[in-house]
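[job 4471] stage=fold_predict status=RUNNING
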Amino acid sequence: MIGGPQKPLKPDHGSDKTAFIPNHIYKMQSDWYHAVRQRYGLPLDSRHLYTKTDWEFMTAAVSSRSVRGEILESVALWLNETSTDRPFSDLHNTEGTGEFPGPNFFARPVVGGHFAFLTLERACAGNAMQGLAFLG
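[job 4471] inference complete, writing structure tokens
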């Protein structure tokens, strides 16, 4: 169920008993990200409509393949539809004109997070993604 009061996580007593983070948590987060995605990305916080692209790409790395595609498409749409004379920002609004909400975050090292899903695909001799294969 998406929404409702927060409760302590209960382990899934299925096939992922030994997983550090149970598989159903990854599935729950993918479903949530799909449900809350806006035109230009995933809001970082439910109180605001801004996002951080480094966080989005790290989120994409551990989301289902379809949600990963949605996140990347939203960031690409933001890059293609908005105009700026600044370097790639890691902070922008996910709705409206996709403007920068301030403070101004431009050309910061955190954009290395944009490579998170590529890194995960190459980790452990290329086997790291097998751990998330259940997401589809």
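[job 4471] summary: The longest helix spans residues 65-81.
[job 4471] exit 0
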